[in-house]
Amino acid sequence: MYIIVYVDDFLIAGKEEDIRKIVKELEEEYELKNLGEVNYYLGINIERTKEGNFAFNQKNKIEEIVEKFNLKEAKPTNIPMDPNYLKEEGEDDILPNNTQYRKAVGALLYIATVSRPDIAVAVNILSRRNEKP
């Protein structure tokens, strides 16, 4: 059984009989509100596959980041970064200041950590330039 807790929200996953038992025990101490099968938690979309497994994605969070940093017109690609890319000194900044750059890299780091390990190396390379984007 798994119990995931964040402040006053929690998820319980496991065998149905075990879940019922723990919920009953928790209800003896706390007022609970059962929201049913989870589909979104802490910025993560959660889907159950036909096989009964869970699939996670952060499509909504990624779209929010794209909007926040005005990247809707950016060209999509199948790889996170050109393998030969390393920004050179003196290259024009894409973002207006270091703060915006750091926020963008931080948002991408969160995505890489939670659901997109495929972008981790690219985000790491970008984070090396936090002081001079």
UniProtKB/TrEMBL annotation:
A Gene Ontology BP annotation from the UniProt entry: DNA biosynthetic process
UniProt xrefs under InterPro entries: DNA/RNA_pol_sf, RVT_2
Domain of life where this protein originates: Eukaryota
Domain Reverse transcriptase Ty1/copia-type, first and last residues per copy: 3-82
Name of the featured protein: Reverse transcriptase Ty1/copia-type domain-containing protein
Organism: Araneus ventricosus (Orbweaver spider)
